[in-house]
Amino acid sequence: MTENGVRNRQKNGKQSGKQNGVATHQEEKIQDEEFSVRESPLTSLLASSLHLRAIYHIFVVILLVLICDTVIFDLVESGKINIGLSIVAAGFGDVSRGIKLWLYDFCVVMSFYPLLVVYSWTGAISRKYPVLRPTVVLLGVIGIVAVEVAVAAVPVYELGKKHLELGSSVAVTCEMFRFMMKLVSVASACGPRCVNGNIPLPTFKHYVYFMFAPTLLYRDQYPRTKKIRWGLVVFHFMEVGAIVFYNCFLWERFIMPYWSDYGKEKTVEAGAVVRGMFACVLPGVISFLCGFYCVLHAWLNAWSEMLRFGDRLFYEDWWTTSRFSLYYRRWNRVVHSWLRDHIYLPLAPYFGRPLATFAVFFVSSIAHEVILALSFGFFYPVLLVEFGILGVIMVPLTATAGRRFPNVFNVIMWLGFFIGNGILWSLYPMEYFARRNCPPSENDSFFVPKSWSCPEVILKPNWSFQNPLSILFTK
């Protein structure tokens, strides 16, 4: 579909929605899924707003201050400078093993295209002999399931047997899920073509392009820009590198001092744990914002520019929302569009919107938890509880009230981000270091948190509660 055709289709869809009052699910899908040439929101805002550019500069200054802090600390303590390189090296340890796992997945994904061609031949036979069509369809389903299992099995087995360091394992597992989701998109778009024979299969070149394009929805054509701005590509990759160091500095200066010795002593005071959790709130939110900017803005925009991919609306202005339903839609449009097209819309007509929504949250939260479990080397469903349970509860609670009191509920949403990220940046490091520092036990398990039993959290000796208001009534 050409760019003008996309615009006309969107325009006609909007006019139809205005005439009917309420758009149907199919109309919403058509309006939302079409691609057009457009910039990311932060790209437009940074270009037009000096105020937002100043906030960007504030984050740059924070990074520079953290670098100076690290340099001075290293000079005073050890007489050498590593500028956080030791944390980066530790976080991305055993890169060669991670690359091998990625290459395995890539080879499996590339082998799917010739299988698709073979399947189209069997589809041609089924058109001559209609009695074979159910068998051919069943073979197609079995084939895509087998390929999906092949993509996931080896990385899951290898990381389960011996996990990589955190950065490398996150990259491997995220790429594993990305390939699996793209294969589903290709299969759902091209499978019916193989059976019906009404539309030809994509070329291998376009298939490879889709595997690297910053989208999870397959289309025969995407809007393309006229040229590649290599300076912009370099700038975005420099941002990615800077944010990696940014998070390493946060880990080294705010996480390590509080949690690196967790488990070395048999007991720990509850006050120290609470102080550590609150100390992790601010670095947790900064890391949350940096992670969003790194992946959904800098990384995807760099690949978009290299591939001349025109549609760069990877997210929307989620930071202004007062309803959690809008936040989940705007936070990551790339994944949200895939979940909508391949889980929500197929299930909603048969099982209803509430159950389809629950299925979306369930699949998404499980995927996030698998990534964290394989990355850390243990199962600790903190994110699953925050995202898959509390997040689901907040959707109906903010549906009406968020419209009536947008400012209040935007504050509540940000309060949830602060508290939630502080908890994540506390509980996961506590469990991580408890498994490293606590002595081995026969009760150790991948699924049972060790930080619950080692060390023992106790109150401060001779601790007692004193009413702070009692001073007003004395004398």
From TrEMBL:
Keywords assigned: Acyltransferase, Endoplasmic reticulum, Membrane, Transferase, Transmembrane, Transmembrane helix
Molecular function per GO: O-acyltransferase activity
Keyword Disulfide bond attached: no
Membrane topology classification: Multi-pass membrane protein
Pfam families: MBOAT
Top-rank taxon, per record: Eukaryota
Active-site residues annotated for this sequence: 368
GO biological process, alphabetically ordered: cholesterol metabolic process
InterPro entries per UniProt: MBOAT_fam (IPR004299), Oat_ACAT_DAG_ARE (IPR014371)
Region of interest (Disordered), ranges: 1-35
A GO CC term assigned to this protein in UniProt: endoplasmic reticulum membrane
Compartment annotation: Endoplasmic reticulum membrane
UniProt biased composition (Polar residues): 1-23
Transmembrane segments: 54-73, 101-124, 136-157, 228-251, 272-300, 343-363, 370-395, 407-428
Stated family: Belongs to the membrane-bound acyltransferase family. Sterol o-acyltransferase subfamily.
PANTHER family according to UniProt: O-ACYLTRANSFERASE, STEROL O-ACYLTRANSFERASE
Protein's name according to its UniProt entry: O-acyltransferase
Biological source species: Agrotis segetum (Turnip moth)
